[in-house]
TrEMBL record:
<keyword id="KW-0347">Helicase</keyword>
<dbReference type="InterPro" id="IPR014001">
    <property type="entry name" value="Helicase_ATP-bd"/>
</dbReference>
<keyword id="KW-0234">DNA repair</keyword>
<dbReference type="GO" id="GO:0006281">
    <property type="term" value="P:DNA repair"/>
</dbReference>
<dbReference type="InterPro" id="IPR011545">
    <property type="entry name" value="DEAD/DEAH_box_helicase_dom"/>
</dbReference>
<dbReference type="InterPro" id="IPR033454">
    <property type="entry name" value="RecG_wedge"/>
</dbReference>
<comment type="function">
    <text>Plays a critical role in recombination and DNA repair. Helps process Holliday junction intermediates to mature products by catalyzing branch migration. Has replication fork regression activity, unwinds stalled or blocked replication forks to make a HJ that can be resolved. Has a DNA unwinding activity characteristic of a DNA helicase with 3'-5' polarity.</text>
</comment>
<keyword id="KW-0238">DNA-binding</keyword>
<dbReference type="InterPro" id="IPR001650">
    <property type="entry name" value="Helicase_C-like"/>
</dbReference>
<dbReference type="GO" id="GO:0043138">
    <property type="term" value="F:3'-5' DNA helicase activity"/>
</dbReference>
<dbReference type="Pfam" id="PF17191">
    <property type="entry name" value="RecG_wedge"/>
</dbReference>
<dbReference type="InterPro" id="IPR004609">
    <property type="entry name" value="ATP-dep_DNA_helicase_RecG"/>
</dbReference>
<keyword id="KW-0067">ATP-binding</keyword>
<keyword id="KW-0227">DNA damage</keyword>
<feature type="domain" description="Helicase ATP-binding">
    <location>
        <begin position="283"/>
        <end position="446"/>
    </location>
</feature>
<dbReference type="InterPro" id="IPR027417">
    <property type="entry name" value="P-loop_NTPase"/>
</dbReference>
<dbReference type="Pfam" id="PF00270">
    <property type="entry name" value="DEAD"/>
</dbReference>
């Protein structure tokens, strides 16, 4: 956008320094450009009202029109609330309730006056009510040109300073008056023509104050398309730059790998594993830096692929690191790979937070000299003292736990030539998201489980069936199996009292199974204690493992065949799927039992039903995306990337695909964007990078 859009918001008519400061603090609106992109999050549609008699509890947010007939403050002190009655044109009543801001609402809400209320209806004893609805007084005389009225996001604080949605709409009117003539087209005529896009000026006008339904839809499509187009364009350009500029070490010798295949592999690779190894090998021999994402459902066998890749590096005189997000997982990788490495005469080490100082010194020394070929560890590997003779390969397991910044620290450990990168994730990322987040990574998928695996049987049981579930546990243990019991604990870093569920659970499990040994692992344990408990379970000294989600990631005990998840309704869908993946790793039939109380929300029910119905990680990820929205799915570290202004990845996959194809085509025809027909695009990119948008948030 041109300089005009960098004008400070305080200079807009009706704003001024005081309001400007509030807008900055509360909504990050600093400039005209920020405000014009503060799109309405919904619209008041004068044609879409429900009658009270049409309401039912499953409805999301609805609009009802009626007259306030009576209001009353009920209760005292903290329990105080305001109740008002809204009567619609049929004479049916809807109760409105406020628990907060009671005094203020009492003052502002006008009796015997017509309002539009917007909120979620709930039913109690056949009567409907709405808590904290949004309100708009229905003034007869007020007629806007727009058939849809914009409703803008505000905050409590803004409202307290009388900056509500209507005030923002007023500001927007002022802004559009001065700003629309300044708007420059940011897409090329060719794209506008091909995709039948509305021009940018009309799009801004109609997204805020739609003239007709058609124009509103066209405006929305245009702005979503543009947003996604520029994300994709940027990713592709990065990829092109990377491909062109970044040389990679060539790894074309494989003697040890051949020996490993011939003499030490205890199983055959699955077809999918073979395909992925080929894809990786092609990268490693191409002379370019590999930058690859390996997706594979839990239990699909990513570790062996990682090891094979590390072997190839070692065969060509390069060192490799395998970084895991937790100590437990690093240990497990280490134990598994150490056995192979020893037999092949390869020096493989482990470095985690709990590695002793004396051992560290040796490790650091051996890494610097090149004597140590492979190292497995946690983020302790990122410390500056860890230096390599020739780091040639970085593998990051379960990458969503690491921030982008953290990861790039690894790459920089080879100042001479950037190492090859393999990122492995067991969180199947829906295609739409993968395209947006990892447009610059090549993607490999292991979509096949090793032969002989039995599909995990998943059931949902209510807490009242606990005795039967426990009997089942006993039967399984008698068959020689082991059992996980997981308790919810969302925040690992939180206070000890949050462990109450787990501790209570642990005690009751010990009481219920006096004849068996019970381990317990959680995030507050010291690493060595955690390790000790884990090892007891691995060695079958204990039959039951009580744990929090620390066992969610990667842990591999093939003899464990039962996963019980307590308060399963409190877990996200992807997390449930990850936990379930801890069983079903051996040849035995495995089970996942989801325990809940009777009271379940609609979303909880959907999550449980999905788990019972399918084992397919990609299907689960798609449903999770729909339920939660993309920001949540990836964890906070990456949500920055997904701060989309108008597009919605859970709904706009088709637009994303078109925008992606368009970006690809534009760059294919004009890699440097220097042709005259792409002048608009070039100018827009320049203004984007001149602005504060921090594109480096994407790795
Ligand atoms: P994940 O992809 O979840 O990290 P792992 O690499 O831990 O899965 O593999 C899960 C289990 O499957 C391990 O015990 C591993 O040895 C085993 N495994 C991997 N590949 C195969 C295969 N091709 N055939 C049989 N077992 C395999
Ligand atoms: Mg794994």
């Amino acid at each position: 956008m041109s300089n005009f859009f960098n004008t400070k918001i305080e200079f807009l008519k009706g704003v001024g320094p005081m309001r400007a400061e509030l807008l900055q603090k509360e909504l990050s609106i600093f400039t005209y450009g920020d405000l014009i992109q503060h799109y309405p999050f919904r619209y008041l549609d004068r044609t879409q009202f429900y009658k009270v008699s049409e309401l039912d509890e499953s409805m999301p947010y609805v609009q009802v029109r009626g007259r306030i007939r009576g209001k009353e403050v009920i209760g005292e002190g903290r329990k105080q609330r305001l109740a008002a009655t809204l009567v619609d044109e049929n004479g049916d009543q809807l109760e409105l309730v406020w628990f907060k801001g009671v005094k203020w609402m009492e003052k502002t809400l006008k009796n015997h006056t017509d309002y539009i209320v917007f909120g979620k209806p709930t039913e109690f004893n056949g009567r409907f009510s709405m808590a904290h609805p949004e309100l708009e007084e229905l003034a007869e005389e007020k007629q806007t040109t727009s058939f849809l009225q914009p409703v803008y996001n505000t905050t409590e604080k803004l409202k307290a300073h009388r900056i509500d949605s209507k005030v923002i709409a007023k500001m927007m009117e002022h802004l559009l008056k001065v700003a629309l003539p300044q708007v420059q087209e940011s897409l090329s005529p060719e794209l506008i023509d091909t995709y039948k896009l509305m021009d940018k000026r009309s799009a801004y006008a109609n997204i805020h104050f739609p003239e007709t339904v058609e124009k509103y839809n066209a405006a929305k499509f245009r702005l979503k398309f543009e947003e996604l187009f520029y994300i994709q364009l940027r990713l592709f350009r990065q990829k092109v730059v990377r491909k062109a500029d970044l040389k990679g070490q060539v790894f074309n010798q494989v003697p040890t790998l051949n020996e490993f295949y011939k003499n030490h592999m205890t199983f055959d690779l699955t077809g999918a594993q073979k395909r992925v190894v080929k894809e990786i090998y092609a990268d490693l021999t191409a002379g370019k830096q590999m930058n690859r994402l390996l997706q594979g459902d839990v239990g699909s066998g990513k570790t062996i692929v990682a090891f094979i890749t590390m072997l190839i590096a070692a065969d060509n005189g390069a060192q490799s690191v395998l970084m895991a997000p937790t100590e437990i997982l690093a240990d497990q990788h280490y134990v598994g790979l150490k056995a192979f490495a020893d037999r092949l005469g390869i020096n493989l080490g482990k470095l985690t937070g709990s590695t002793k100082a004396s051992e560290r010194k040796v490790l650091h020394e051996q890494l610097r000299s090149g004597e140590m070929k492979m190292i497995v560890g946690t983020h302790a590997l990122l410390e500056d003292v860890v230096q390599f003779q020739n780091l040639g390969l970085c593998i990051v397991d379960e990458q969503h736990r690491f921030g982008v910044e953290q990861r790039s620290k690894l790459w920089r450990k080879n100042p001479r030539i950037i190492p090859h990168v393999l990122v492995m994730t067991a969180t199947p990322i829906p295609r739409t998201l993968a395209m947006t987040l990892y447009g610059d990574l090549d993607v490999s998928v292991i979509d096949e489980l090793p032969a002989g695996r039995k599909e995990i049987v998943t059931v949902h049981r209510f807490d009242s069936h606990r005795l039967r579930v426990f009997q089942f546990v006993r039967d399984q243990i008698k068959l020689g199996r082991q059992v996980y019991i997981v308790y919810p604990l969302i925040e690992e870093s939180e206070q000890m009292e949050n462990y109450k569920d787990l501790m209570d659970g642990y005690e009751s499990i010990k009481r219920a199974f006096p004849e068996y040994q019970v381990s317990m692992v959680h995030g507050k344990l010291k690493p060595q204690d955690k390790d000790y408990e884990m090892q007891r379970f691995v060695k079958k000294e204990t039959q039951i493992m009580v744990a929090t989600t620390v066992i969610e990631v990667g842990v591999n005990v093939p003899n464990a065949s039962v996963m019980i998840i307590e308060s399963a309704e409190r877990f996200g869908l992807s997390q449930l799927h990850q936990l379930r993946g801890r069983v079903g790793r051996g040849a035995e039939q495995s089970y996942c039992i989801l325990m809940t109380g009777y009271k379940l929300s609609k979303d909880s029910k959907t999550r449980l039903e999905t788990m019972v119905r399918t084992n397919n990680g990609f299907e689960i990820a798609d449903i999770d995306l729909k339920l939660r929205g993309p920001g949540d799915l990836m964890g906070t570290q990456q949500s920055g990337v997904l701060d989309l202004l108008i597009a919605d990845l859970s709904k706009d996959a088709p637009i994303l695909q078109e925008a992606r194809a368009a970006a690809q085509r534009v760059l294919h025809q004009d890699p440097q964007l220097e042709k005259p027909e792409n002048a608009n695009i070039r100018r827009h990119i320049q203004s984007l990078s001149a602005n504060t948008i921090n594109w480096s948030r994407i790795s």
